[in-house]
Prior knowledge:
Elements lengths: L1 H5 L8 E7 L2 E4 H7 L10 E8 L5 E7 L5 E10 L3 E3 L5 E2 L3 H11 L7 H18 L3 E3 H15 L1 H11 L5 H13 L1
Parallel strand pairs: 6-8
Antiparallel strand pairs: 1-2, 1-5, 3-4, 4-5, 6-7
The structure holds zinc ion.
The site of zinc ion has 8 residues, from loops.
Amino acid sequence: MLQFYRSALPVPGNKQFTAIYGGYICSIFHIRRIMRCPYCKHQASKVLDTTHDARGGVRRRRECEHCGQRFSTTERPILATPLIVKQDGTREEFDRDKLIRGIRISCAKRPVSAADIERLVGEIESTLQAMGRAEVSSRVVGDMVIAGLKGMDHIAYIRYAIVYLGLDDLKAIRGEIDRLLEG
Ligand SMILES: [Zn+2]
């Protein structure tokens, strides 16, 4: 746990803790130093009780040691998503909306709902976070989209694959369609 206190900024691949304190979102780094009573600004408070929620959050009920007012603080883990390393070697933040837009184009006029696309991208994001790595190749993301679309809609899958796998001639596209028909 100590390593989290030292680091105030989210680092991809590390679990970071933030806390919502008096309506402000701060890192644990700040909470440890300027945990002040929201009423009188006194720094010391005693913890009355601590509860844990199912998502790994911690809520503490506190009482100010100076004015006696009670207030609550919460801490919850934020899982960082790894940086995406593109084919040309440059890195970019995982962009959920951009991924959704790309998939949506492939799904135009197909019976794939916006909720299905949201769910797929949510699953991809969770998988990336669970890897606990600082960086992940864009291929990993593309492969997950391909695998997800394959199970959802074959036409959307073929459209995405044509762009993503760079299927630039009819023979390669037919090869992919043949594989789908066999599978
Ligand atoms: Zn106080």
